[in-house]
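Exercise: predict the fold of this chain.
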Amino acid sequence: MLTTLLTRIKQKHRTYPFPDKKPLLPERFRGLPDADCSKCDSGCDECVKACPVNALSKKENQELLIDLGRCLFCLDCTEACPRGAIHFSNIYSLSSAHRKDLIWSNTGPFKPKAVLDKKRRKLFQRSLKLRQVSAGGCNACEADINVLNTPFFDLSRFGIQFVASPRHADGILITGPVTQNMHDALIKTYEAVPDPKIVIALGACAISGGLYSDHAEATGIPSSIPVDLYIPGCPPHPFTILDGLLHLLGIKPNEDKRD
């Protein structure tokens, strides 16, 4: 016991003070994409061709559109661009309540919103229990979800916890492209959660199918399951996940890039 106490004193407080303090992100962090299309040659679409998941598209007026719900943040577009017009910023706040708001454009600001209605926010703001459903994912998103339970992030200080049974949950958090083998299981899990409930789609696979969007075995989230929050990424950074969950509950960081 004495050794444990001495170690704790030596290590000091290890939980990062987010959202009161802006997060420290690695140099190679890939956040919200940005592009200066004034550098582009007329008719050039090398970045669009390079995208492995068709997340990029370009209009005749050189407006570039990037679907963050499909984007893998893989850098193929930045490497293919002969003018270096595209890069990924360190903006980690990417979540949205609406799928259409995940479409980034170089002609306007990216300001998605993800806040529950007043009734559910009042119910869940101090205590939110989630059942995580891995619907055929590669375990990358699951790994970053698990990190949120470590002392550094300490998800439970916000009243958010993961539970083993959907009957004890307030909602479900879905990862993976939803394979045929997981389709029925996901629906049953959703139906087992008592109303009112929350549904969160986390990662490119859950949002759009990701690399498996055109695969016969990937069914995607059934239309009968309404999604309240989309958290893009492949996988999303833990701070991106935490930021999305806090915005959903109406808890905004002091330095919020959306406002």
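Check your answer against the key: The chain has two domains: 33-91, 118-248.
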